[in-house]
Amino acid sequence: ARYLLPRHEPLGSMRTTTFIRMLIWTDQPVARVDIEIDGSPHPHPAVYRGKETSNDAGDTTKTPLWVAPWDPAEYDDGAAHVLAVTVIDTGGKSTTVQTPLSFAGGALPLHNGATGGWIMRHDIAAIFRAASIITYLVAGALLVVAPRVYYALLPAGCAQWLLEQAALHRQDRTHVRQLWDQVAHGSDHVWARPVLPLAAAACKMLARTQRARQVHWASIPWLFWPAYALTMGLATLPLFTGWLIPSAGPLGVGSLYAYGIYLAAEWVPLADSW
After folding, report:
1. Structurally, how many domains does the chain consist of?
2. Which of 74, 219, 250, 268 is the S-S candidate for 261 at Cβ 3.0 to 4.6 Å?
């Protein structure tokens, strides 16, 4: 019950089961199987229902299935139960396995909630889809839309603004070189050198240069508008349309989008289409 996936497993079918099924592998024949639920002995004994199959090469495949009748309605109270199975072989060796049991329709809390437990409790496919869509929208807004809006709001025109940015770039470059000389040939103590100011100045210069390049690119119509159309097309139009499932006949024709497949009048979202 700790590893149930409510969105992917038919949890309701547990209420219609009539047997507890156990696969038991041992080095020696099984002598006894004891079942307890919440510390109380199970009233019905376990019975061996396994089988062995052999192929032409003489290899034997064994299915060590043991079953015990039960009534799941007795434990359908929304609480967590513990199913314990103890197996003893003819050599006297014994092993007990405990399994959490619940009919609440969801997974029981995990002790490692910060790692695997968090993954088990959430729909990772939906998280991936949302993350990819948000990332695409943010990247498109920053790299395509924002430079164009910034260009449209320039009061003095793009040419004058680019000249001002070029002058600022030369000042930033000179400042970075001065700081680099102090870092490379300054004090013998590394912590006394202006490493952080150098990093801040370099990041400022790179950010300002990248902004100037993006705005300049957005001011060129024959570069900006095809890129804008491509960005919008990837978000709204199919990447391709074709016969995805040949054996399905006309129903096998579908379209693949950046975030899902439209096939046979049904939409199938994808988690990793990127």
Report:
1. 3
2. 268
Here the tokens at position 105 are 């329709």
Each residue's pLDDT, cut to its tens digit, for the chain (274 residues) gives 555 665 566 667 888 889 999 999 988 889 999 999 999 999 999 999 988 777 777 676 778 999 999 999 898 888 888 999 999 999 999 999 998 888 876 666 555 555 566 676 677 777 888 888 888 889 999 999 999 998 888 887 788 888 888 899 899 899 888 888 877 776 555 555 677 888 888 899 999 999 999 999 999 999 999 999 998 998 889 989 999 888 888 888 999 888 888 988 888 887 665 5
Structure tokens at 16: 């219609």
CATH of the domain at 52: 2.60.40
